[in-house]
Amino acid sequence: MSAGGQDTNARFIRDIYREAQARGEPVISFEFFTPKTPQGEANFYERVVPALCAMRPGYCSVTYGAGGSNRGRTLEMVERLQREFGLTAMAHLTCVGSASGEISRWLDRAAAAGVRNILALRGDPPQGVKRFEPPPDGFRYAYELVRFIRERGGFSIGVAGFPEGHMECREGKETDWRRLKEKIDCGADFVITQLFFDNRDYYEFRDYLAGKLGVAAPLVPGVIPIMSNRQIRRFTSLCGASIPPRLARELDRLGDDDAAVARFGVEYAAEQCADLLRRGAPGIHFYTLNKAKPIREILRRIGLNPEAAPSPDAEPGDKACQ
Ligand SMILES: Cc1cc2nc3c(=O)[nH]c(=O)nc-3n(C[C@H](O)[C@H](O)[C@H](O)COP(=O)(O)OP(=O)(O)OC[C@H]3O[C@@H](n4cnc5c(N)ncnc54)[C@H](O)[C@@H]3O)c2cc1C
Q1: With a 6 A CB cut-off, is 33 part of the ligand 1 pocket?
Q2: What is the pLDDT along the chain (322 residues), one digit of tens a residue?
């Protein structure tokens, strides 16, 4: 029986990282969003999740809609991934649009559904609004949400980190990184980074946090496989990540040939991941965009696709992942 009541195999993610580190193994994790249509949902549970389950992830996570729009669905999906597939799943939670009382009730529901892990985020202001304004009796910064969840107890807490600095932070990236340390000091157990395309940004971020500020929490790189020029230009403009010149030139050359861009995206992400793991990253958090194929191919290329050596315990047709 889990701490929250629901019967699941869900574990605290801080323990997953600690144990993997002791074994010298990376933790592979997957981020999903809540599907927008009934067909999307059917495809997700019937094809995407089983295909990615076979990759034996340490855990997966489910985003929280911009503006807090689908907060109920985040919990439903986390609960279903845990119950039906035996995964550990983490719910993202933002400060947008919720007073502390509502967040408190949402946390109670999460705990009752067997959720043991929360990614505590501030969230973004609605489109067209420049400055984030906290709701009355809500939280202005993610560190306040982290403190609130920690005081309640019962969850392992992750937070967001920005290897290039958060796009709103005018004081520079080192100031943003010191604020990230504040989130850890308030009770966060691990950090997942925003997507980036130049690993040197991650190493600089890690050296500053772990080396200079003495942060011991896992700093987990977030990696996205590029699927089309349109998509990646949109994402990077929204989150402030930069596209290095070598990558930009190749993307320009491939233009609107989405199939060629996607093949190149897999190659690029595989190189990124291999280098990150070789240089000691605690794992990789994949922004899957609810697609299994590119992720399986990246893992195959870096020697982490376990399908080549099936577990002797696996029963044919067994739906659970672990
Ligand atoms: C892994 C990951 C998952 C994400 N998932 C989601 C999701 O599911 N749903 C969603 O809506 N968004 C999501 N986001 C986006 C995130 O909500 C935005 O990037 C948001 O703008 C910042 O969130 P934060 O938690 O980093 O905020 P914070 O840590 O609060 O930082 C926000 C800004 O405030 C500044 N700041 C922090 N503390 C202080 C302080 N004490 N004084 C002054 N300034 C301060 C920071 O430097 C930064 O510029 C995700 C991002 C990542 C990296």
Answers
A1: no
A2: 444 456 778 999 999 999 999 999 999 999 999 999 999 999 999 999 999 999 999 999 999 987 766 778 999 999 999 999 999 999 999 999 899 999 999 999 999 999 999 999 999 887 778 788 898 999 999 999 999 999 999 999 999 999 999 999 999 999 999 999 999 999 999 999 999 999 999 999 999 999 999 999 999 999 999 999 999 999 999 999 999 999 999 999 999 999 999 999 999 999 999 999 999 999 999 999 999 999 999 999 999 999 865 444 444 444 555 5
- Would you tell me which CATH number, out of the four given (3.20.20.100, 3.40.1280.10, 1.10.540.10, 3.20.20.220), belongs to the domain 13-302? 3.20.20.220
The SS3 call for residue 286 is: strand
What is the rounded distance in angstroms from the CA atom of residue 266 to the CA atom of residue 215?
31
Return d(Cα 137, Cα 140) in angstroms, integer: 10
Q: For ligand 1, atom 35, which residue shows the shortest CA distance?
A: 169
Task: Report the SS3 class of residue 123.
Answer: coil
* DSSP bridge pairs for 303: none
Atom of ligand 1 nearest to the CA of 169: 49
How far from 112 is each of 64, 75, 164, CA to CA, in Å? 18, 11, 37
- Asked whether the whole model's pTM tops 0.70, one would answer yes
Atom of ligand 1 nearest to the CA of 68: 11
Q: Is residue 31 annotated as part of the catalytic site, yes or no?
A: yes
If one counts every other C-beta atom within 10 angstroms of the C-beta of residue 282, the result is 22
In DSSP notation, 159-227 reads EEE-TT--TT-TT-HHHHHHHHHHHHHTT--EEEEEE-S-HHHHHHHHIIIIIIS---S-EEEEE----
Residue corresponding to tokens 């504040």:
182
Among protein residues, the one whose CA lies closest to atom 41 of ligand 1: 179
